[in-house]
Structures are given as structure tokens and as C-alpha cells.
Amino acid sequence: MPNRLSNRLAALAAACLLAAPVLAHEPLRWRPAATAPAPRSEVTVAALDGRAYVIGDYNGATELLVYDLAGDRWSRAAPLPHPIHHAMAAAQGGRIYVFGGYVKGWTASGEVLAYDPATDAWTPRAPMPTPRAAGGAALLDGRIHVVGGSTSGGANDPAHEVYDPARDSWATAAKLPTPRDHLAVQAMAGRIVAIGGRRDGDPDRNLAATEIYDPATDRWQAGAPLPTARSGAASAVLGDAVLVIGGESGSRTFAEVESYDPRTDSWRTLAKLPTPRHGFDAVAWEGRIYTLTGSPRPGGDRSGTVEVLAP
Questions:
Q1: What is the pLDDT of residues 163-181, one digit of tens each?
Q2: Whole-angstrom Cα distance, residue 278 to residue 294?
């Protein structure tokens, strides 16, 4: 590893030591949880106040599915204004924000919608400067970074734009060095980590790239590559690691679960996902990872599967 990467990761490693080292204490195992009331795929998921919100659907469903993480039960909430799939989402300030996605088939959208659980209502917000779908979104220091994705023609766009919910405004940041879609994007210890994905929407062109963004310098740096190149994976932060779960290629779905430790710039293999799938998402809550819905086969299938990784 280049010395400059070692130096940059040192500060990240120090911050990570403050996180609960969940992966270091007990082996993690999978268990089933309550099935969603309706099947979904190509969703985005955001967690807020002990609930996970499953948003969008490849097959056109608009109803918001809400999972109570403590109670292991589902409810339904206000539908989206129109069908969306391959959108991106994050929670901040008591609201869920949904960015872009494909609408009217495969048209990349710049629309931004905010959902307020208190009123069970959706409202429009300032649109993204660059319409796109199948990128990633992560909250860092009160602002939401929307990274990568594809345009209406399927070509990748390296855009990295930062939304400020308090001001309802956008700023631009350093572009993603490896343009890609269907990637995993997470915030961790003051950095943004972008992992895996595919070239121009082609699941037979999966990538193993790991790239880390430092907002202090507005620069990206390469990290150790993902051991199993894949796209359409779910991801979440657990303790001191980013987990990349499942995914697909053109011929199969993946059960692989691999965790990235920025302290050592290294990967570790964890227990495989019981139901290999893609087009789903994950949230971390109280030391557990919840994986929600998704397609067990490559392409446009869907399911209501929920599986939990826990000590």
C-alpha cells in the first residue's frame, strides 16, 4: 500500500477505534425475520428512529413498506407520487430523503423527495444537479453525499454531489475516480467509502474497486479491492467495518459477505447470506445487520425476504 494511503487511513483508523468492535467479539450468524408484506426489488432503504423504510420497486409498486426493527413487524405508509426504481436514500433531521432513480421505465431522474413520518407525506425538494440512478447515498456531518450512478442511456456518471437538507441546496465535490453504478456507498469515521459496482449497467462488467473520499481534502484515494467483484449488493456499517452483502453478475446472485476494515485496509470473509440476492439493501441497528427484500435471481425477480446478521 502506498505510504500516502497509510497516512490518510491513520486518522480514519483512530476514529474507528471509538466504534464498538462488534466483529471482534463474537461470530456473526444469520437468522430469518418477518417477511415483508409485499415483494420488492431494486429498492433503496433508509433507517430512522428504529424503523427501516423500503422505497421503490423494479415492478412499479409505490407503497412505502415500514419495518419495525425492534418489534420484527411490518406496516405500510404513504405511497410515492409515482413508481421509482434504483433510487438512493438517506435519513436526516427526522425525514427520509430519496434521490433520483429510474422513472417511466429507464429514464434517470433528478427528482428529490422528502418523507416525513410525522405527517405520512411526501414533499418535493431541490432536484439533483445531475439526474441519475443506481448510485449511492450516505450521510456525513449533516449532509448527504450522492455518489456515482447511471444516466438515462445507461452510461456511468462520476458525479459526486452533496445535499444540505437544512438549506435544501446542493454543492459539488470531487468526482468518483472509477465511474460505476450499482455500487455500495457508506459513511464511516468522517469518510465516504465507495465499493464495487459495474460498468455502464452491465452485470457482466462487475468491479472490485474500493475508493475512499476525504472531505477535508476533497480527494479520493484507492483502498484494497473487494475480494469478490459484484454489483447490486447491500451494504452497512457494523462496528469498525463496512459490510458488502450479496449482489449479482449476469449469470448468478451472490451469497458472499465481506467486510472492509479501514484501519488495516483489508478485507475479511463473514458467514454467507442464506438467500443470495441483489437489488436489496441493508441497515445496521443495535449491533445487527438487517437485509430487506431483493431478487434471489439475476434480473427482475423480487422477494419479501428479511435476514438478520447478529452475534
A1: 999 999 999 999 999 999 9
A2: 6
